[in-house]
Design a protein that fits this description.
This protein is an alpha+beta fold. The protein is built from 4 helices and 6 strands.
Length: 199
């Protein structure tokens, strides 16, 4: 054995005996069961508080996500339907231009250039509002749809199926899929059976 090995050996033995003494000291300590119960209760309480805080954090994240989605939908609706008021103010102008074309004397040569101008104005205006998502609802001959039509009257008609639109008194309009004015229509109904009473 060299001198260095002889010096390291006593040091290693001292380290081992110190570890053994510490282990013995720890094993020799009497553990109070009430203290262990108290520590377990504190651990359980801390775990419960941590679970509650985790739940609260998850709920907050979910609420924020829902708020973000709702805000995005609100912004999208605001963009889509911002023109609704403006369009509803333009609808009577479109109606009046259409009425002008319906009642005008198309055979009168003096009025023809005026009618052409009104027709071009109506077409231009209809194309302009269509670019912003405004579409006319003209349900002539279609089945009555209470979501898009407003029945002004019902007329018996044996030639048509019940609830068929016979006439459109005023076109309806929708903006980006939402009805902003229902079409005013006349609807067919089945003829009532006449009852003969013999006396």
């Amino acid at each position: 054995m060299t001198n260095q090995e002889q010096v390291q050996e006593p040091i290693n033995q001292e380290t081992q005996t110190a570890d053994q003494q510490e282990t013995v000291a720890i094993e020799g300590v009497a553990i109070d069961s009430a203290y262990v119960v108290e520590l377990e209760q504190k651990l359980e309480q801390a775990s419960s508080i941590a679970a509650e805080e985790k739940d609260r954090a998850l709920r907050t994240v979910a609420e924020m996500e829902n708020l973000r989605r709702r805000t995005a939908l609100d912004v999208e609706k605001a963009h889509k339907f911002a023109l609704e008021k403006f369009v509803t103010e333009l609808l009577p102008v479109l109606d009046n231009l259409e009425r002008t074309l319906q009642v005008a004397d198309k055979n009168n040569e003096a009025v023809k250039p005026l009618l052409e101008g009104v027709e071009l104005t109506l077409k231009s205006m209809a194309n302009s509002v269509a670019k912003f998502g405004v579409i006319a609802i003209d349900p002539q001959g279609q089945l009555f749809d209470p979501n898009q039509h407003q029945a002004m009257s019902m007329i018996e008609n044996p030639d048509l199926a019940p609830n068929t639109v016979i006439a459109v008194m005023q076109k309806g309009y929708e903006l980006n899929g939402r009805v902003i004015r229902p079409a005013m229509v006349m609807v067919s109904k089945a003829p009532t059976a006449s009852v003969n009473i013999e006396v």
